[in-house]
Amino acid sequence: MDIAVATAFAALILVAGSLGGGVYETTLIDRLWPDNPALVQPSRGGINRKRFWMPAHFAFEALLGAALWSAWTRPDARRWLLAALVAHVAMRAWSFAYFIPRAIAFEKAGDFNADQHARAMTWVRASGWRLLLDLAAAASLCLAIIALLAT
Length: 151
Prior knowledge:
0% strand
């Protein structure tokens, strides 16, 4: 197995883990925390989402970069790896612009008043859409691996 296939496959495993983490958060955690903010407030014993998401994203981005570098001379695979990168960058940009600043504010807020609860519900409804971008990255990685194996 060449390095391009290995790194693309490793990136696929990590994006699948991100999808799993995202599904876990949207189907379980996000359904509960707006009514019980302590669930996402580490200072009150809640989960610290940064402990999962920061290493998961860093490792995925490093492997995706390695896959791109090692497959750059293979245009069919490069196209799909770039598509995975675009989907991931879009998800990360949206997260940095909207989700992360609000998540930090929710973590520091204590118990919510009615306005904070409404903002939390808006955040939760929008957050699930990020899964589609992770899914697009995963599908693109699958197609890149198929292209790599075909050459």
